[in-house]
Design brief:
The structure holds 2 protein chains of 2 kinds.
Chain A (H helix, E strand, L loop, with lengths): L16 H20 L8 H25 L5 H9 L1 H26 L16 H35 L6
Chain B lengths: L3 E7 L5 E8 L5 H11 L8 E4 L21 E8 L3 E3 H20 L18 H23 L7 E3 L1 H21 L10 H29 L27 H17 L2 H28 L16
Parallel strand pairs in B: 1-4
Antiparallel strand pairs in B: 1-2, 3-4, 5-6
Helix pairs in contact in B: 2-3, 2-4, 3-5, 4-7, 5-6, 6-7
Classes of the chains: A mainly alpha, B alpha+beta.
Chain lengths: ~170, ~300
């Protein structure tokens, strides 16, 4: 198999494009396709839960990137970025899952974003089933991302303790 | 005759893996790979990548030792390409799946649609026609894999078979589900639409086959020669005047025909995804033609005449 030329990407921070795009898409999905689309869940506590988790995470994460780019990264920020996720990540995931779960009966009742047979394009889509599939997908995906962060934490925080020993 | 010494180092760790002495100067990389396998049997030749520079390009099997920029002690770097599987195996598996899976839906095997529909038959002619076309397409692909295609690479990474089969089998099941559904709606413009679509499909299948034969005839059996393809007496091959990869052009055309015939959105989506992938391949092939041949016809585009 040939590997044909891959266009170069502009890199400002070293994060993986794939992982980050994935996270952005999942956030947009939660906000637009679930919370905004199903008005009835907007008063749920679970929404508060993921909004708080995301907000704190992003404030720390972007401070981390900014300070890194300025070559002046306080250890506290680095520590916070690689430690607080231990609580914030499960918190966010719980909020997301509970919100999707709360939306299910309303989606089913209204037939939201769903199309059934027969129709002239011979296509069907069941948004309710789709949301359940999304919830199930958290089972393989969440542990992978979580343990990836744990692994990163071990690598990066122990690095600093050894006063930036170069490999 | 002066013999060469060849040492093989791991490209990542620089660990010395193998030392070969008294290697003939006209030995090929393929022969060196065979010698390397003797000391490391788990790394069969197909999964070896040998290069002159740890981060450089892989050397070709046909490269001859004395023609390489090395001294009489050559240092080669080894990278493990991972478990490999033959292209033929992958193609046969990925094409046999859709053939079989589509028929499961066509015959309305139990547990797909409601029990009252088990083993019933659609009352729409187009559904039977679609089954014939889809089956013909994959039978053609299987036969071409066995008797027509001459592959330049023997193997690909093993994980590709899972990726490829998921794609082909998944889409086949998705399309087949709707086309053979008891609630299937035939095309809006009826028999006219079906006839036109069938014509497009047949023409493109013949075209695609013609190109495969023309490409086969460019390359003698067992060789890996590369030549610029040109139109032959067969009118279907005249598309070579305008595109580098008319086989992909005809393939997209076939699926567009099938989509129009069945008026089924999943088929259109499958065509779109296939088109995207084939365009990437066509652009790559076009670029490598341009790089390899100074006199490459300038009018040609990769996949769509004048456009793409």
């Amino acid at each position: 198999t040939g590997e044909w030329h891959k266009p170069g990407r502009r890199r400002i921070v070293p994060s993986s494009v794939v992982l980050t795009s994935f996270q952005v898409m999942s956030r947009v999905f939660l906000i637009w396709a679930v919370t905004h689309s199903v008005k009835e869940v907007q008063s749920e506590d679970s929404v508060l839960l993921f909004v708080i988790a995301w907000t704190i995470t992003e404030i720390i994460r972007y401070s981390f990137y900014t300070f890194s780019l300025l070559n002046h990264l306080p250890y506290l920020i680095k520590w916070a970025r690689y430690t607080l996720f231990i609580v914030l990540y499960p918190m966010g995931v719980s909020g997301e899952l509970l919100t999707i779960y709360a939306a299910l009966p309303f989606v089913r009742q209204a037939g939201l974003y769903s199309i059934s047979l027969p129709n002239k394009y011979n296509f069907s889509f069941d948004y309710h089933a789709f949301l359940i599939l999304i919830m199930i997908s958290y089972i393989p995906i969440f542990p992978q991302l979580y343990f990836h962060m744990i692994h990163q934490r071990r690598k990066i925080l122990s690095h600093t303790e050894e006063h930036k020993k170069f490999e | 005759m002066k013999h060469y010494e060849v040492e093989i180092l791991d490209a990542k760790t620089r660990e010395k893996l193998c030392f070969l002495d008294k290697v003939e100067p006209h030995a090929t990389i393929a022969e060196i790979k065979n010698l390397f396998t003797k000391t490391h049997p788990q790394w069969y030749p197909a999964r070896q990548s040998l290069r002159l520079d740890p981060k450089g390009k892989s050397l070709k099997d046909e490269d001859v030792l004395q023609k390489l920029p090395v001294g009489t002690t050559a240092t080669l770097y080894f990278r493990d390409l991972g478990a490999q599987i033959s292209w033929v195996t992958v193609f046969l598996t990925e094409y046999a799946g859709p053939l079989f899976i589509y028929l499961l839906f066509y015959f309305r095997v139990p547990f797909i649609y409601g029990h009252k529909y088990d083993f019933t038959s659609s009352r729409h002619t187009v559904v039977h026609l679609a089954c014939i076309c889809h089956s013909f397409h994959y039978v053609k692909r299987l036969l071409e894999t066995l008797f027509v295609h001459r592959f330049s690479h023997g193997t690909m990474p093993l994980r590709n078979i899972f990726k490829n089969c998921t794609y082909y089998w998944g889409f086949a099941a998705w399309m087949a589900y709707y086309i053979n559904h008891p609630l299937y709606t035939p095309p809006t413009y009826g028999a006219q639409q079906v006839k036109l679509a069938l014509a497009i499909f047949v023409i493109c299948q013949l075209g695609n086959f013609s190109i495969h034969m023309a490409l086969r005839d460019l390359r003698p059996a067992g060789s890996k020669t590369r030549k610029i393809p040109y139109p032959t007496k067969n009118p279907f091959t005249w598309l070579f005047l305008l595109v580098s990869c008319p086989n992909y052009t005809y393939e997209v055309g076939s699926w567009i025909g099938f989509a129009i015939m069945t008026q089924c959105l999943p088929v259109a989506l499958f065509s779109l995804v296939g088109f995207t992938q084939m365009t990437i391949w066509a652009k790559g092939k076009h670029r490598s033609y341009l790089k390899e041949f100074r006199d490459y016809p300038p009018l040609r585009m990769p996949i769509i005449p004048f456009l793409l």
